[in-house]
């Protein structure tokens, strides 16, 4: 695809997003505070993207489970509320979508069919479910039927398949299209790969060729240039960015710039627009902002605790010493955080060796995908009952 035809917006049914950029749902990460942090970065460019809430379970929502309900918090700046649901039972999924639309005013619902965690696939959920084409269709149809009166687009997110011998993504794309989904997002790995190896962008291109609905490409976007390259190589309608923005919310301003409409004379150079590398002083300000937003949404004590897991991502490659890093990873108040952040050299340049390198989960491939007994014997599963738990804490 030539540079000049890069998509400049994302259209999901009647919903239009200024940029073809989606923050991937990440359990334990993409809460209201983090979504706002990333959103603020895009606002600096005068545009917005789609920022998906961490996954919640359909059954948890329908049964008004306290943990689930607590996760359904939105920042006042979030004009487009986007939620990812996990579900294996069409009845729960339909009811949950109805609740999200009627009571929470969501503008977009995504359904998770990509989770590789054995605890989830053992029951036939997450990344295992698309093997049952009939059941997948029933779940998607239930979601679309519930969302249609509210004009809310439903999308699905999936992986290539169980493993290389059991690929499901092309069928999933067809089923998503037939049931009225507004788009399908593909993480170019199998469940067996988990987060290991490289995401297969050729599979994303194959899905683009296979369906008429928009395909969102996901996997291994570490820099804005990767996002542009993915869209150019695959013809995807947009990108879904996960681990690349861990500790780097400013990636969203780079992404906004990369997909911004070019001024004519700029066309030739757009893909190489260089990232706006923050010095440590700016990273420090973003860390403070992140902790502040977490404290606003969760209270200071819980907010600071939540912030701890982000410290090593923010400081990756910077010279900060071990003692300071350890203290930051134990921070329990905003004032303590301020004191510690003061110890960081604001003029330290961004460690360019970090650019383009993986961060977050990588893991190793699984020798086999844990599935319910006899799961592979029937590839339809219509009407099949797959147990749905109230809470699933891992979604990816
Ligand atoms: C900490 C973490 C949590 C995740 N949680 C979810 C989730 O709840 N739902 C989901 O569909 N994917 C989840 N994922 C997967 C990501 O959305 C994304 O598909 C994956 O990380 C690949 O994209 P990336 O290479 O841009 O990270 C998670 C990934 C990580 C690292």
Describe this structure in words.
- Strand 5 (82-86), helix 4 (90-104) and strand 6 form a beta-alpha-beta unit.
- The protein is 37% helix and 12% strand.
- By secondary structure, it is α/β, with parallel strands linked by helices.
- It has helices at residues 32-43, 58-62, 66-71, 90-104, 118-121, 133-147, 169-178, 201-210, 224-234, 251-259, 280-298, 300-308, 311-315, 322-328, 334-341, and strands at 10-12, 15-17, 21-23, 50-57, 82-86, 108-113, 154-159, 183-187, 215-218, 238-241.
- Helix 4 (90-104) packs parallel to helix 6 (133-147) and helix 11 crosses helix 12 (300-308).
- The strands form 2 sheets. It has an 8-stranded parallel beta barrel with strand order 3-4-5-6-7-8-9-10, surrounded by 7 helices.
- The two termini are 30 Å apart.
- The protein contains 15 helices and 10 strands.
- The structure holds flavin mononucleotide (FMN).
- Flavin mononucleotide binds next to strand 4.
């Amino acid at each position: 695809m030539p540079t000049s035809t890069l998509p400049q917006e994302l259209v999901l049914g009647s919903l239009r997003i200024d940029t073809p950029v989606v923050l991937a749902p990440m359990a334990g990460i993409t809460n209201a505070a983090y979504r706002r942090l990333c959103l603020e970065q895009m606002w600096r460019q005068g545009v917005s993207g789609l920022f998906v809430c961490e996954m919640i379970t359909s059954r948890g929502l329908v049964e008004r489970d306290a943990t689930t309900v607590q996760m359904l918090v939105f920042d006042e700046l979030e004009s487009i509320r986007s939620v990812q649901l996990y579900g294996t039972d069409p009845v729960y999924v339909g009811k949950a979508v109805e609740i999200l639309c009627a009571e929470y005013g969501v503008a977009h619902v995504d359904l998770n069919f990509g989770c590789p965690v054995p605890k989830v696939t053992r029951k036939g959920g997450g990344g295992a479910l698309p093997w049952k084409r009939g059941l997948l269709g029933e779940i998607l149809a239930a979601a679309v039927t519930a969302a249609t009166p509210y004009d809310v687009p439903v999308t699905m997110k999936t992986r290539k398949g169980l493993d290389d011998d059991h690929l499901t993504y092309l069928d999933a794309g067809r089923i998503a299209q037939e049931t009225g989904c507004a788009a399908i997002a593909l993480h170019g790995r199998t469940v067996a790969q988990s987060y290991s190896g490289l995401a297969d962008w050729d599979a994303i291109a194959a899905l683009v060729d296979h369906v008429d609905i928009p395909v969102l490409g996901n996997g291994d976007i570490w820099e804005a240039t990767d996002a542009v390259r993915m869209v150019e190589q695959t013809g995807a309608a947009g990108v879904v960015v996960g681990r690349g923005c861990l500790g780097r919310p400013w990636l969203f301003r780079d992404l906004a710039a990369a997909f911004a409409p070019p001024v004519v004379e700029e066309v030739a150079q757009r893909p190489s627009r260089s990232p706006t590398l923050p010095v440590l002083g700016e990273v420090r300000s973003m860390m403070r902002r992140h902790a502040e937003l977490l404290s606003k949404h969760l209270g200071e004590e819980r907010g600071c605790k939540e912030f701890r897991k982000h410290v090593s991502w923010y400081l990756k490659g910077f010279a900060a010493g071990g003692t300071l890093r350890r203290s930051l990873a134990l921070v329990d108040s905003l004032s303590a955080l301020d004191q510690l952040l003061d110890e960081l050299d604001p003029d330290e340049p961004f460690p360019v060796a970090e650019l383009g390198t993986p961060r977050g989960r990588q893991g190793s491939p699984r020798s086999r995908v844990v599935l319910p007994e006899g799961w592979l014997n029937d590839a339809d599963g219509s009407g099949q009952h797959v147990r749905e738990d109230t809470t699933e804490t891992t979604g990816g």
